Amino acid sequence: MATAIDNCDSNPIITFSDVRTDGACSGTYTITRTWTATDACGNFTSADQIISTSDTTAPTFDQTSLPIDIVVECNAIPASEIITASDNCGLAVVTVEDIRTDGSCDYNYIITRTYTAIDECGLTNTHVQTITVQDTIPPTFVETLPLANIVVECDTIPTAEILTAIDSCGPAIVNVSDTRTDGNCPNSYILTRTWTATDECGLTTTHTQRIVVQDTTPPEFVEDLPRDTTAECDSIPEVSSLTATDNCGNATVTATETKTNGDCPNNYILTRTWIATDECGLTTSHIQIITVQDTSAPETITTFDDVLNVSCTDIPDAPELQFLDNCSTNLSVVFNETNSFEENVFIDYQIIRTWTVRDECNNEAIFTQTLNVTLDEIYSELVAPDRCFDEGVINLNDLISGTLNIDGSWEVLEGNTDATLEGSIFDPTKLELSEDFLPDDGGIDYRFRYTTTDNGCISITEIIMNIHADCVVLPCGENDIVISKAITPNGDGYNETFDIAGIDLCGFVAEVKIFNRWGALVYESNNYTLGSIETSGAFGDWDGSSPRSSIGTAGKLPNGTYYYIIKLRNSGLSPLTGPVYLGTK
User: Fold this and answer.
1) What is the pLDDT of residues 219-254, one digit of tens each?
2) Which of 583, 575, 568, 421 shows the shortest CA–CA distance to 507?
3) What's the pTM?
4) What domains sit in the chain, N to C, each tagged with a CATH number?
5) pLDDT in tens, 338-368
6) Phi, psi angles (nearest 5°) of residue 55
7) Is the dihedral of CA 288, 294, 296, 301 positive or negative?
8) Under a CB-based contact definition with an 8 Å cutoff, are residues 465 and 387 in contact?
9) Can you tell me the distance from the alpha carbon of 24 to that of 28, in angstroms, rounded to the nearest whole number?
């Protein structure tokens, strides 16, 4: 507080103002404080006060408990703690610095951790924590460890598993080693297998597996083993040379053979035994039984034709065959001959010659010669007299030679098949007159074949005969003609067309004209189709149509009575006329 006195004013007014001049840091600066005393008439007096400040007090940590010295594992080093600080004049920050001092290995060392509090003027306060780092934990295996004790065959010793290890502080390596303890043979022993994991500080972890190795598998033969077999007395197989392999070492093979006699010198049994032995005395054996016997039949040493194609008139004599047996010299031979020829059977036949040969052990062989005999054909041709078709049936047996048997067969080679042939009876009456079969047109030539056997051969007789209709008189008169009286072309299949029937076989050509009741020509044809009385379904051409489209509807004439004029050219008949009714509904 400041005071002032004035000569006239007993209570002058006192004020002040500050001007700050900053220094090197926030806690160092100068304040110039100016004091002013003013009287009631405005007269004033000023005076300056200089205040200088400086920061000499270091900051202090806010926490009451600071990190203490500790001993930790290499994988448990704590992170630096978050520590704050306060300053009497301004702000303060805390920095952390670690300094490492190496020890006996990479994971044995000391960390000196310094926490430093700094204010704005650079004043500091420090706290030091000592962290002793050490590796006391050995490494551990990663994978599932192999069984501690196993028993294996000598050829199935497992390879050492690849194990890896991890360490709490750093890498670890794994080494494996085997130690062998011999047993009672080369392939029986014990392997002690040890895996050792070592970290960088020399700490180790081990795992031991005891492997009992033994040979319990006998050797095996290499080649396909000889099978039991039956052999002919002249084809006994040689003793097979077999070798063997063992799963663990070498093997040797020995072979022996014994003989057991049978009921004859060439019937006996051979027993062959092969034994394979390995280095530990394990064995495998194989036995082959060879049944030796004489089952081979004799063979012929004479060349002959198995099959001959011959004529029935030139059959060769049976050949003289010679035979040989693989074991016997005394052979029996039986000859037989069969013939399939039958009278009146018109096929080739066979003669089969058979030689049956047996050896001393009753082994039998049959040799066959087959003669395919072709029947010769004796051909003759006869021309029989011409015959009218309606003269009745004919027994063709009456036309052949009387020296031939009548048990053969007849067939028609040429001719109209309407005439029937049953056995030797030919019936031409089944023929009907047609445009192709008319009187005086030359008739139909038939050729018949008769096949039978005669003196062991085929006899063929062909008969030529003409069947005609010259004995028939055609009904070609005016009274034989039938003309339609009415036509109804309505699609019902009856009276559809204007028909002229009864003269179709006479060879006439019809000229037809149709007129209406007023005499107008409505249809004309110079070659009109003729129907037949005997054959239904043969119809005329006119169905009520008119070529003049102006008459009727859609080219059809109206109902009513029409008139026809029919001229039959070359018939000698007068024109035929008459009415015909046309009904279209």
Assistant:
1) 999 999 999 999 988 899 999 999 999 999 899 999
2) 568
3) 0.40
4) 13-53 (no CATH), 60-134 (2.60.40.10), 140-214 (2.60.40), 220-293 (2.60.40), 299-374 (2.60.40.10), 377-468 (2.60.40), 478-582 (2.60.40.1270)
5) 988 888 887 889 999 999 999 888 899 999 9
6) -105, 115
7) positive
8) yes
9) 6
